[in-house]
């Protein structure tokens, strides 16, 4: 099981709906007091925990999870795959430029080739012709990764209602990524549709990973540290293969931390 799968979209990984009993929550609070697990990137932890509870205990189980599962059960797989391919193709130019800024020419060329092939022969990206030609999908490089590669710190960590975890660096990076065409050509309603469709697909895929949060004495800490670690990997890694080799290692470390509790 790979950490990348758990963090494929931090938006809905934070909303995994594994309900905890009151006793479990009290146990987590006592653990927090016994061990110093505060994080220098989380100066607003008290506020963030309130937002976590809004996402984890209210929005996800009653709205996001059932809607997402309904979406994947009602919409045919081929249609959902086409939407997923189209969205990924929109983000390929972003990854091309960001990879160049990270001095990763090989990855930039990979994303560029995928973009022009799928845009030309794949019905503007609905069909993933590039993968059939041997150019498999890779992780997208965001501008937040670029800043991290140049040793700009992640800044404060925030738990945003609905959106999920976010750092100041990643939030600023998202704004820059939105300036790249064709993402910059999307209107606000179109951007929201893209956000919702992609989010529902990813949230439904995270159902099989919910037990990991259920087994954690403090899901908030688990998700926060996993998110910060993964973003650090993305900034340091020039390609997806290096990130993948780190996934299992750090997932084991997180599970060891849980066992230590």
Please give a handful of descriptors for the protein shown:
2 strands, globular, mainly alpha, 261 residues, two-stranded antiparallel sheet, disordered N terminus
Explained architecture:
The protein is mainly alpha-helical and 261 residues long. The protein has one domain (3-24, 40-260). It is 67% helix and 3% strand. A hairpin with a 3-residue loop joins strand 1 (157-160) and strand 2.
Present the secondary structure layout:
Layout: H1 3-6, H2 10-13, H3 22-34, H4 45-74, H5 77-101, H6 105-121, H7 129-132, H8 143-149, E1 157-160, E2 164-167, H9 168-177, H10 188-205, H11 210-214, H12 219-236, H13 240-260
Antiparallel strand pairs: 1-2
Helix pairs in contact: 4-10, 5-6, 5-10, 8-9, 8-12, 12-13
How would you briefly describe this protein structure?
The protein is mainly alpha-helical. The chain contains 13 helices and 2 strands.
The number of helical runs is 13
Question: Based on DSSP secondary structure assignment, what is the total number of beta strands?
Answer: 2
Largest sheet entry: 2 strands, antiparallel
**Number of domains as seen in the coordinates:** 1
Beta-strand residue fraction: under 5%
Mean pLDDT figure: 83
Q: Specify the oligomeric state.
A: single chain
Radius of gyration: 19 Å
In whole angstroms, the N-to-C terminal distance is 22 Å
- The chain-level structural class is mainly alpha
Order of helices and strands: HHHHHHHHEEHHHHH
Inertia-based shape: globular
Helix content: 55-70%
Trace the largest sheet across and list its strands.
1-2
List low-confidence stretches. Answer: 1-36, 238-247
